Amino acid sequence: KNEVEQSPQNLTAQEGEFITINCSYSVGISALHWLQQHPGGGIVSLFMLSSGKKKHGRLIATINIQEKHSSLHITASHPRDSAVYICAVGAATNKLIFGTGTLLAVQP
Amino acid sequence: EPEVTQTPSHQVTQMGQEVILRCVPISNHLYFYWYRQILGQKVEFLVSFYNNEISEKSEIFDDQFSVERPDGSNFTLKIRSTKLEDSAMYFCASHRDSNYGYTFGSGTRLTVV
Fold first, then answer.
1. Do B35 and A96 touch (CB under 8 A)?
2. Which of A44, A95, A99 has its CB closest to that of B42?
3. A1 near A94, Cβ under 8 Å?
4. Cβ proximity of A25 and A90 under 8 Å
5. Does B101 contact A43 at a Cβ distance shorter than 8 Å?
6. Tens digit of pLDDT for each residue in A45-78?
7. Which of A11, A74, B9, B44 has its CA 20 to 30 A from that of B56?
8. Separation of alpha carbons A84 and A10, rounded Å
9. CA gap B110, B108 in Å, rounded
10. pLDDT per residue over B28-58, tens digit each?
11. Which residue in chain A has the smallest CA separation from B41?
12. Looking at residue B40, what DSSP letter applies?
């Protein structure tokens, strides 16, 4: 069983839609990270959170430590948001354990 | 904004050859990592490095692999006697400490033929 599970694996949305990507994990963590990976392969850190909620522009990340669950929301989605969104959890040793990613395609 | 720089961006090598992947982490970062992503799969942890020594390594990181920080700035991953299954994107990452997020390099795509 994967230590970090994401859903959905693939998501197609129309421009302007509100998008939610979910992440569940089964291990103890120091923090949870949301990352973005574009087709060229590079990985960009979006959020690092250990409790509550963070917001950056149209992106919102929440985490429920008791339920071991996090969500990434994108408001007013745009085609440029198309990418793979990855949930990764930080272990006590600081290494990251990655989920399999959610491939998001936002159509105009 | 400071960047983690990786070179080369692409490398093609013959099976059995040695390759060295190079990374320049952000200057005030203390923790350094190598991850890899085989095409179509999730990113996997290889090794972490702190205070000039390996702090953790995965099962993947066997005797074929080694890391060095030879001059206080570069952070290298050496793969000896490459195998076809070593073909992957290799990412270097660093962070200042556990209170700070990671910065990833843009990756080196290694193809072993």
1. yes
2. A99
3. no
4. no
5. no
6. 999 999 999 999 999 999 999 999 999 999 999 9
7. B9
8. 9
9. 6
10. 899 999 999 999 999 999 999 998 899 999 9
11. A100
12. T
List chain B residues with CB under 8 Å of A48. Answer: 100-102
State whether residue B85 is helix, strand or coil: helix
Q: How buried is B86 (Cβ within 10 angstroms: 0-12 exposed, 13-18 middle, 19+ buried)?
A: buried
Q: What is the residue whose two structure tokens read 């694996």?
A: A9
* pLDDT tops 80 at residue B1: no
Size of interface A-B (CB pairs under 8 A): 60
* Contact residues for B44 (Cβ-Cβ < 8 A; gap 6+): A98, B35, B36, B37, B38, B58, B60
Cis peptide before B8 (omega within 30 of 0): yes
* Alpha carbons within 13 A on the beta-carbon side of A87: 30
Residues of A in contact with B37 (CB under 8 A): 41
Least Cα distance to B24 among B2, B48, B41, B44 occurs for: B2
